[in-house]
Amino acid sequence: MERHDLIVIGAGPAGLSAAIEAAKTGMDVLVFDENAKPGGQLFKQIHKFFGSKEHKAKVRGFRIGRELLDEANRLGVRVELNSVVMGLYTDKEVTVKQGDCVRHYKADAIIIATGASENMVTFDGWTLPGVIGAGAAQTMMNLHGIQPGKRVLMLGTGNVGLVVSFQLLQAGCEVVALVDAAPRVGGYGVHAAKVARCGVPFYLSHTIVKADGGDCVTGVTIAQVDSKFQPIAGTEKHFDVDTICLAVGLSPMSQLAKMAGCKMIESKGGTVPACNEYGETSMDGIFVAGDVSGIEEASSAMIEGRIAGISAAYTLGYLSEEERNSGVQAQEAALESLRQGMFAPKNRGKLVKETEEGIAVSMNLLEKGYVAEDEIERYPGVTHSARIHPVMECTQNIPCNPCQDACPKKCIKIGENITSLPVVDPEATCIGCGMCVASCSGQAIFLVDEGYEPDYATVTMPYEFLPLPETGEKGTALDRSGKPVCDAEVVGVKSMPAFDHTNLLTIKVPLDMAYRARFFRA
Asked: Which GO terms describe its molecular function (predicted)?
């Protein structure tokens, strides 16, 4: 039987972060993961993260995964892949299936970072080939380069449903609709907005009634639901699709914690092990981190992993109590900043009607996926100027501030509170570099030049689709709802390594369309 200081179960963002922090203290760390590649969900997350620099803001998930793996390797962390942990026992012994063998390992401390699994919903035809989870769709697209389907309907408007819908569009799929039984969009408004301006309709207070097909999905019928989430007769709508994608939540994979004898509690997100502020469960020396202890974003999982790694090192005598406390306090401060704003845990399931600044929240955004024309001007980032300037359509208090750091002229201010809405400093001069546009994780910043030509303006927007339009190409400008509003001509395409594959597309539109044109279709 092999013995180690620490065994970490799961090589995702939480597990790798925990292993790194423990290894920094000199601990002998062994990590198991059932997959063929480490990194967990990070390597299929091609979008940019929110938060601040300390949270890896504006860095794409797969790049964060590479950074964690490189650091773990430098510190001598041993990662065993294709290793299924079958059992975890009270004496911190684990049984692991590796190939055709079952091996036994033992450690002085265990960190469980097994993550979560996708939920499913049942409806007539839900077992047909072509009904898949959003995570499966991400794996097919972003790891294997395979389109999940040609015409896709997405069920679920949380962040996963919104992000994967946009990635489906990037992969060349047609997303025919976003559907949710809830009356409001569940994820970040900026994620919804970038999908809506591509022309994808939202059907809130709707659910799937039936999937059509014999050998595979050929269509889907949805219907409006009443206050008890029951379909309302006569409201059915049919779509011809070959794929139905489900993004209906996650459940913590907490079975190993329960097997080890950890005290379990029921939460809104599922059954999770009870743990203290250090991530330690009711079983001495067994810690948890990441989604297994409660569903949050990957940024939070990494911080929880660091806390668990530091705490395990203290438990085994590799850190003093003072070192443990100072390390954990720094991580808790970073974690607390992510748990602020409209999407804080305390606000889950609640309708927040005003921003922290006292501005009315866009109900159109919550119900249709985009901010209406008569609502957009109320937000402080939407300003007018005779010269080129940023227009920031960030309308919710989300923990994110890379735009403030990216601007070389300090045109953008968010302030000490990371969830504050961005504002434009009227005393600063925008040079039109586009760094703010490229850095925005929600693709919610545009550069507007209202003095480009007599009667014409330019709008510079983030663009992450291929093929890239070429200068001189003519097409159509779409508004926030995805509706065509005017002819447009491409007058500039800018790509730089610093933009990290967010291209800047500049289109020329009539002056009165400068605050409506938000997407370009060739």
From this structure: oxidoreductase activity
pLDDT in tens, 5-61: 999 999 999 999 999 999 999 999 999 999 988 888 899 999 999 988 878 889 999
- Backbone angles phi and psi of 264, in degrees to 5: -110, 150
For residue 422, whether the previous peptide bond is cis, meaning omega lies within 30 degrees of 0, is no
390-414: b (≥16 Cβ within 10 Å) or e: bbbbbbbbbbbbbbbbbbeeebbbb
User: Using CB atoms within 10 A of its CB, is residue 468 exposed (0-12), middle (13-18) or buried (19+)?
Assistant: middle
Q: Coil, strand, or helix at residue 511?
A: helix
Q: Is the pTM of this model over 0.85?
A: yes
**Euclidean distance between the first and final Cα of the chain, in Å?**
63
CA-nearest of 411, 406, 420 to 462 is: 406
Q: What is the pLDDT of residues 236-273, one digit of tens each?
A: 999 999 999 999 999 999 999 999 999 999 987 789 99
Beta bridge partners of 251: 117
SS (H, E, C) 132-183: EEHHHHHHHHHHCCCCCCCEEEEECCCHHHHHHHHHHHHCCCEEEEEEECCC
For residue 192, give both structure tokens: 């919804």
β-pairing verdict for 412-413 and 423-424: antiparallel
Instruction: Give the Å distances, CA to CA, from 91 to 112, 311, 511.
Output: 15, 19, 71
By the 8 A CB rule, do 400 and 418 touch? yes
> CA angle 428-430-433, nearest 5°?
145
Residue (of 401, 469, 472, 463) closest to 438 by Cα position: 463
Count Cβ atoms below 10 Å from residue 255 Cβ, excluding itself: 14
> In order of start, what are the domains of the chain with their CATH numbers?
2-117+250-338 (3.50.50.60), 120-246 (3.50.50.60), 376-521 (no CATH)
Gyration radius of the chain's alpha carbons: 24
DSSP code at position 401:
-
